[in-house]
């Protein structure tokens, strides 16, 4: 079951595209958008991450941070970020720790990929409390970006 609004954001250790360890708790201090996506370089994931890139100025103006999370390796994420000019952090959850903690782990995507994230978004307030959740069982559906921004505005 996915994390619920009102809960403290679960802790997980991830790896950034520049191969630094990042804990979810390291993100406290400002509102944060955690955008879990299935796989870099796929159509819907690319559109989603590019949309967050294009909206980044609005989130920054609210004092918020956007973070993309997938099971891709840091090396893949670094290339994905480079090719699409993604200036926000992409975090690798190759060990599936965050996906499982947030309840968005998909153990077998189409019987092809072993362990990816369901497309989902969690907004955390500056204290690391979950204030918004959106989870899709359909990887072809993008998140409701206006709702995500509205959730950030409430805690900015």
- Rounded to an integer in angstroms, the radius of gyration calculated over CA atoms is 14 Å
Total beta-strand segments: 9
Quaternary: single chain
Largest sheet: 7 strands, mixed
- Structural class by helix and strand composition: alpha+beta
**Mean pLDDT rating:** 95
Strand residues, percent: 25-35%
CATH class: Alpha Beta
| Count of helical stretches | 4
Tell me, what's the shape? globular
Detail the poorly predicted runs: none
CATH fold field value: Glutaredoxin
Can you walk me through this structure?
- With 156 residues, this protein is an alpha+beta fold.
- The protein has one domain: 3-Layer(aba) Sandwich (Glutaredoxin), CATH 3.40.30.10.
- Helices cover 30% and strands 28% of the residues.
- It has 4 helices and 9 strands.
- The strands form 2 sheets. The chain has a 7-stranded mixed beta sheet. A two-stranded antiparallel ribbon has the order 6-7.
- A hairpin with a 4-residue loop joins strand 1 and strand 2.
- The chain is globular.
- The two termini are 27 Å apart.
- The model has no long low-confidence stretch (mean pLDDT 95).
């Amino acid at each position: 079951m996915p994390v619920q609004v009102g809960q403290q954001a679960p802790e997980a250790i991830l790896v950034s595209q520049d191969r630094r360890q990042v804990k979810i708790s390291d993100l406290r201090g400002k509102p944060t958008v955690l955008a879990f996506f299935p796989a870099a370089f796929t159509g819907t994931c690319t559109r989603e991450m590019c949309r967050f890139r294009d909206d980044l100025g609005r989130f920054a103006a609210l004092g918020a941070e956007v973070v993309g999370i997938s099971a891709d390796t840091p090396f893949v994420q670094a290339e994905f970020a480079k090719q699409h000019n993604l200036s926000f952090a992409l975090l690798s959850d190759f060990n599936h720790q965050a996906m499982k903690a947030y309840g968005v782990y998909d153990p077998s995507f189409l019987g092809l990929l072993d362990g990816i994230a369901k497309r989902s978004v969690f907004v955390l307030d500056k204290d690391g409390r979950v204030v918004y959740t959106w989870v899709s069982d359909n990887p072809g559906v993008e998140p409701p970006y206006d709702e995500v921004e509205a959730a950030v505005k409430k805690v900015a």
